[in-house]
């Protein structure tokens, strides 16, 4: 079994290694027709840029995308600078240099990688999946009888912020930086999944397709790990299945198939304000121009946020979304599970959490207000502030850096729910409902708590669960995503997630059940 | 301002301090030689097993004590002088008190076995014991086998700890079946099997005879009363605990096994009280033992004594007995009294149900003549404390308990439920026709 695991980890590392090298290798042969097509498709009017590209790019072969990218980015910047100086505003190119480079590269890939997509898929994704499963599946035997499997978590480098954790951190952060800010380097990755993308949407893959596909693969493999680790716990099994289903079907397959059917790309479960650009002008226009389905999506998106989300939170708590449906939550509960213990439980962290998450919600709402105002009044500014700039700041700072780079990249260091706890505006909204109007609570079982702290340690949301349990109080916190791990790791059967009557949901106690009845009444009276 | 000194920063002392602070502005000092801050003793095992770091066992952040004006003194109390209301610390300082509370807990039993003080022989109670174990048994190269002596809750925890580092463990248990002084035989038998399933070499009906040192004076083997010699590097002595009160000898405070207290937790000396593991009731409270070394009772005594110290003199009057534990992977809860065959009285009748394959079982105790429900032991099924407390208050009959058993289920959502199977077996054994009622929130939350 151990041998299988060693083979597995080796295969996995080989696959990961090849995947990591890909952005820096490959041959890109830009012939004249490709260039003309890209210039036409991107409606580039700058003669300076076109001239530069014709002389420096056309007919050339580049080894590694960075050479190509360097030329395109510099030429574009120079051209725009000149146009601005000469006030030739019509000639300014609004496509980003790196996106333009990515478009050119995507069409001009030649050589081994672009020519052997299936083989390359196997050498990266294939080896990664097989290797990971060979590592994970033997745990069925190695972990021994079913039960809580947290032995050694604080002894291992990978789960105790050791060097492996820092390497994973470095890899994840770099991966997200490439994805958001250096898309041209992802060109070789897109070739690997072209056949899959073409079979779904009919289009070749872009870097976001790579991300979506990878997301599903990682979640599936890590879900297998969840099934094995929590095989004694039906709640975890059902929840993992749910979150996996919604990722693969709703976030990945349906939007791709919709594109094939000439419909707008839309994830039906991604609710505003997590889906922060739902009301952006380009999205509204695209929906309004898509006929019946566009109007339906618009209607659905609004109903989802205003009615479905809060009503469901009333009956089931915010867990129905955050740990059963949401994609961010799905990754956190699968890939992120080994890191859940790193969330900070201090009172200070809770204070930071409340300021940050409600700040982001406010930001999202103000931005959306400005967006809608601009949309209906057809102006670009509100009170002298450009709506577009506010949107850009949100997209960059919150949408990319907070949710992606920090939210996932920092898993091995700050735990798996950094975004969900500190940043997600939808979570903030759901949290209000859960705290003030919901049937959901984690019930504390009378006086059975022994203050051991397993619940608090493994709470991914940084809730000091024990602080409530040891006082015999139910846990009713806006940040609780209902993952159910506190209940799972409790050695004394103290915690139960349940939906029940609102009356008595919040039950402050000082003297716990089991003591003198008169004393309990005297002290617990509030 | 009145000065309350509490010796011991365990659950009893800390609960007391918290409640006194809520009720009053008195000066509070907690003295401990063991640790800087309160930690949960029950969680020490998880530190060794790598589930937690030591700081995770501390229920309150470090700023909590200053904010609540609870002064913490790290030191060892050598002597108490009740006549002048002074205590002497090992570092030659003294502190004077107005009220003194002894909450010093327990220490592991040592029954005078030859070799019991050798290096490599240890108990598992304190933070220092944990640190010692980390040195004695860091892995299975340094510690190639450990022998654990004493088949109680700490013994099985220590076995689980060592197994988490793949250290071979031999577990010597004096009884013929694990913990059968407390558990009825069906349950005890299930735990025996579970211990073996975890590759722990369980030796029932076996006593330690002698611990043998090697040339360096470290433990190298033990011999048993079965004439066997077992080679080992560590010996865990887990044959129960005894009140940690040696420092009070000669102080004039009446001592028995523990510090003798009345129902108000007052000792024989005015203004000196004792709570928790180290307190010994003059007369046992209903079916409890005079010394109760249990987390929950320590906490309850703290809750009660705080009232007395703040001017509302109150007797310690615990409610219905409850307890819990975890035997490797099997969770155990108990509400009311279920006695083992060894200790139960004639009128106590048991109904036992066990899952055909899984490690799940329950035992319900009831009165043979009146059918009154006396208590329940549950393994692998979580049950609601409040519901059983209510049924015990209301003197419900066993049939009522079985009819509404679904209300008491506390397992996580989606878990398979066994109430129907349990009631079916009860019906078959008793020629009854009980129809289990569906779970009802109204029943669960009704206060009546």
UniProtKB/TrEMBL annotation, chain A:
4Fe-4S ferredoxin-type domain: which residues? 440-468, 471-500
Locate the transmembrane regions by residue number. 7-26, 119-142, 163-181, 208-228, 240-259, 293-316, 355-376, 396-414
Q: Does the keyword Transport apply?
A: yes
SUPFAM superfamilies found in the cross-reference section: 4Fe-4S ferredoxins
Signal sequence range: none
Q: Which UniProt keywords apply?
A: 4Fe-4S, Electron transport, Iron, Iron-sulfur, Membrane, Metal-binding, Transmembrane, Transmembrane helix, Transport
State the InterPro entries in the record: 4Fe4S_Fe-S-bd (IPR017896), 4Fe4S_Fe_S_CS (IPR017900), Electron_Trans/Redox (IPR051684)
| PANTHER family cross-referenced by the UniProt entry | FERREDOXIN-TYPE PROTEIN NAPH (PTHR30176:SF3)
The molecule here is called 4Fe-4S binding domain-containing protein
UniProtKB/TrEMBL annotation, chain B:
Q: Which cofactor does it need?
A: FAD
Is Flavoprotein among the key words of this record? Answer: yes
Keywords in alphabetical order, please. FAD, Flavoprotein
Q: Which InterPro entries match?
A: FAD-bd_OxRdtase, FAD/NAD-bd_sf, FAD/NAD-binding_dom
Highest taxon of source: Bacteria
Pinpoint the FAD/NAD(P)-binding domain residues.
3-287
Is this entry keyworded Flavoprotein?
Answer: yes
Give the family, as the similarity comment puts it. Answer: Belongs to the FAD-dependent oxidoreductase family.
| Protein name, per record | Pyridine nucleotide-disulphide oxidoreductase
The species is: Maribacter sedimenticola
Q: What is the lineage of its organism?
A: Bacteria, Pseudomonadati, Bacteroidota, Flavobacteriia, Flavobacteriales
């Amino acid at each position: 079994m151990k041998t299988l695991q060693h083979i597995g980890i080796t295969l996995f590392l080989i696959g990961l290694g090849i995947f990591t090298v890909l952005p820096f290798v490959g041959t890109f042969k830009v012939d004249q027709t490709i260039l003309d097509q890209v210039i036409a498709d991107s409606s580039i009017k700058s003669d300076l840029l076109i001239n530069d590209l014709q002389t420096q790019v056309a007919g050339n072969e580049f080894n590694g995308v960075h050479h190509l990218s360097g030329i395109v980015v510099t030429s574009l910047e120079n051209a725009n600078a000149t146009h601005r100086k000469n006030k030739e505003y019509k000639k300014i190119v609004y496509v980003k240099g790196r996106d333009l480079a990515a478009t050119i590269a995507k069409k001009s890939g030649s050589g081994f990688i672009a020519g052997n997509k299936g083989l390359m898929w196997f050498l990266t994704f294939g080896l990664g999946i097989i290797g990971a499963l060979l590592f994970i599946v033997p745990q069925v035997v190695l972990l021994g009888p079913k039960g809580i499997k947290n032995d050694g978590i604080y002894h291992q480098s990978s789960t105790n912020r050791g060097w492996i954790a820092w390497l994973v951190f470095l890899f994840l952060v770099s991966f997200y930086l490439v994805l958001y800010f250096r898309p041209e380097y992802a060109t070789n990755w897109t070739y690997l999944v072209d056949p899959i993308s073409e079979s779904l949407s009919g289009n070749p893959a872009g870097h976001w397709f790579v991300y979506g596909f990878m997301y599903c693969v990682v979640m599936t493999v890590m879900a297998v790990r969840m099934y094995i680790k929590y095989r004694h716990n039906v709640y975890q099994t059902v929840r993992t299945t749910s979150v996996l289903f919604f990722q693969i079907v709703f976030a990945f397959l349906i939007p791709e198939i919709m594109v094939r059917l000439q419909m707008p790309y839309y994830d039906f479960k991604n609710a505003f304000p997590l889906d922060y650009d739902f009301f952006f002008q380009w999205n509204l226009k695209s929906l309004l121009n898509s006929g019946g389905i566009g109007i339906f999506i618009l209607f659905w998106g609004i109903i989802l946020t205003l009615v479905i989300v809060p009503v469901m939170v009333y009956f089931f708590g915010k867990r129905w979304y955050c740990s059963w449906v949401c994609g961010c939550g799905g990754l956190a509960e699968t890939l992120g599970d080994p890191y859940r213990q790193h969330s900070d439980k201090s009172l200070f962290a809770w204070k930071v959490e409340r300021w940050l998450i409600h700040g982001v919600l406010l930001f999202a709402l103000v931005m959306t207000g400005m967006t809608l105002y601009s949309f209906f009044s057809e102006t670009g500014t509100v009170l002298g502030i450009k709506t577009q700039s506010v949107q850009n700041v949100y997209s960059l700072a919150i949408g990319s850096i907070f949710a992606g780079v920090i939210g996932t990249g920092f898993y091995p260091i700050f735990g798996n729910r950094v975004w969900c706890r500190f940043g997600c505006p939808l979570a903030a909204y759901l949290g209000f409902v859960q705290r003030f109007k919901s049937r959901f609570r984690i019930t504390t079982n009378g006086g059975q708590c022994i203050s051991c702290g397993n619940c608090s340690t493994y709470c991914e949301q940084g809730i000091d669960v024990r602080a409530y349990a040891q006082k015999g109080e139910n846990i009713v916190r806006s940040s609780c995503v209902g993952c159910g791990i506190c209940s799972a790791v409790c050695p004394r059967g103290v915690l139960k997630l349940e939906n029940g009557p609102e009356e008595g949901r919040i039950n402050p106690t000082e003297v716990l059940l089991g003591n003198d009845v008169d004393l309990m009444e005297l002290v617990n009276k509030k | 301002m009145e000065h309350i000194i509490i010796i011991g920063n365990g659950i009893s002392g800390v609960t007391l301090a918290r409640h006194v602070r809520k009720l009053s502005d008195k000066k509070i000092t907690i003295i401990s030689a063991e640790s800087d801050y309160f930690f949960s003793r029950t969680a020490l095992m998880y530190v060794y097993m790598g589930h937690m770091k030591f700081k995770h066992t501390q229920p309150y952040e470090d700023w909590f004590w200053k904010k609540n004006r609870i002064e913490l003194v790290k030191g060892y109390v050598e002597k108490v002088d009740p006549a002048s209301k002074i205590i002497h610390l090992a570092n030659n300082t003294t502190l004077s008190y107005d009220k003194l509370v002894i909450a010093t807990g327990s220490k592991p039993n040592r029954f005078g076995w030859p070799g019991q003080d050798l290096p490599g022989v240890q108990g598992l109670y304190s933070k220092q014991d944990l640190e010692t174990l980390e040195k004695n048994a860091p892995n299975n190269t340094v510690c190639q086998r450990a022998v654990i002596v004493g088949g109680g809750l700490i013994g099985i925890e220590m076995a689980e700890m060592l197994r988490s580092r793949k250290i071979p463990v031999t577990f010597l248990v004096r009884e013929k079946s694990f913990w059968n002084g407390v558990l009825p035989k069906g349950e005890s038998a299930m735990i025996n099997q579970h211990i073996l399933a975890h590759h722990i070499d369980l030796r029932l009906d076996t006593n330690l005879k002698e611990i043998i040192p090697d040339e360096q004076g470290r433990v190298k083997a033990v011999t048993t009363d079965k004439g066997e010699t077992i080679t080992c590097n560590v010996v865990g002595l887990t044959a129960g605990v005894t009140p940690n009160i040696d420092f009070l000898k000669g102080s004039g405070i009446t001592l028995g096994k523990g510090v003798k207290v009345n129902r108000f937790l007052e000792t024989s000396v005015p203004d000196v009280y004792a709570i928790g593991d180290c307190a010994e009731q003059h007369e046992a409270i209903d079916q409890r033992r005079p010394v109760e070394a249990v987390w929950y009772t320590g906490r309850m005594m703290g809750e009660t004594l705080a009232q007395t110290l703040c001017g509302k003199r109150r007797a310690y009057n615990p409610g219905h007995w409850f307890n819990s534990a975890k035997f490797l992977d099997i969770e155990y809860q108990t509400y009311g009294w279920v006695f083992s065959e060894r200790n139960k009285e004639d009128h106590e009748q048991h109904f036992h149900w066990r899952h055909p394959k899984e490690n799940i079982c329950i035992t319900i105790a009831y009165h043979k003549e009146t059918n009154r429900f006396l208590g329940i032991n549950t393994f692998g099924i979580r049950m609601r404390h409040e519901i059983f407390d209510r049924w015990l208050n209301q003197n419900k009959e066993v049939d009522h308990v079985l009819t509404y058993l679904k209300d008491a289920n506390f397992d996580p959502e989606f878990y398979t439920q066994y109430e129907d199977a349990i009631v079916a077996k009860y019906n078959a054994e008793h020629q009854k026709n009980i129809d289990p009622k569906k779970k009802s929130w109204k029943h669960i939350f009704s206060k009546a």
